[in-house]
Protein 1
Amino acid sequence: MNNTSHIYLPGRRKILITAPHAEEHKRDGQPKFAEPKTGLIARYLSQKFNCHALVTNGVQEHDPNYDITCPLTLGDCPFKDALSTVIEASNIRLVIDLHQLHPSRPFDFVIGTNDGKSVVGHDFLVETLRSRLLQLADRVLVNPPFGYSARHAATITRYVAEGHDIPAMQLEINSQLTDEWENVARVLARFVIDVAPMNRKGRL
Ligand SMILES: [Zn+2]
């Protein structure tokens, strides 16, 4: 499972945290900056709260959350291939895909669910996550019309929801907040604990 392009950390909960931009990557061939705190948060949630984590490792030739060469069907994208393998091997019931926003953006968090479709009927997940994020910051958006909403055809969120029929949410975190990334990780840990009973009862 682990190769040069990504690292998988197994967990006991049926929740997978992904960080496809943790390292520098190319989007349509153009280099993009890394979002390193997403990798730290994913590792924290795996090591301390028993989630599974899938994190990129080293410079990526593709953008697994954007390039159409990483499409909705299995193809030339090692990260998405690994994602599918983990989901099926560990009976994953929820995926949270982490990203960092440029610090100039006038909001703290954005939850993207492709206008509600990617939670495949589990609408409570969005409100539960939003409530937890509001404990840390005021400006929490859900599916704003101008972007960051996982609508693009090749997002991790759509790949999971449409390819595996399980809920997935994209979470964009303002990079100003990630200076204290452990606070963000702790808030996400509370969300993980919030949904644990539903997970145990098979409702998620
Ligand atoms: Zn990103």
Protein 2
Amino acid sequence: MNAPNHKKDECPKCGYAVDSATELHHEPVKPSAGDFSLCLSCGSLLRFDRELLLGHASADELDELDDAQRSEIRKAQRYILQRGPITK
Ligand SMILES: [Zn+2]
């Protein structure tokens, strides 16, 4: 578990509590407005708003990223979906 590095929030889809973020290669990073995120429990594609709160993001929004970034996000999302939700 990482130290909290953003406001306590929850996934808008499943309610999973979130208060920390890492970049895809596990380096802790303080998120910025507009950054994408994935819910670690349900795999929902999320995005930080101006207040650094999490909201839904559409798959179309990933078009803003380059191919490598899109591919990494989809790979991580597939992993989360295959693993299943976090139950604790
Ligand atoms: Zn979720």
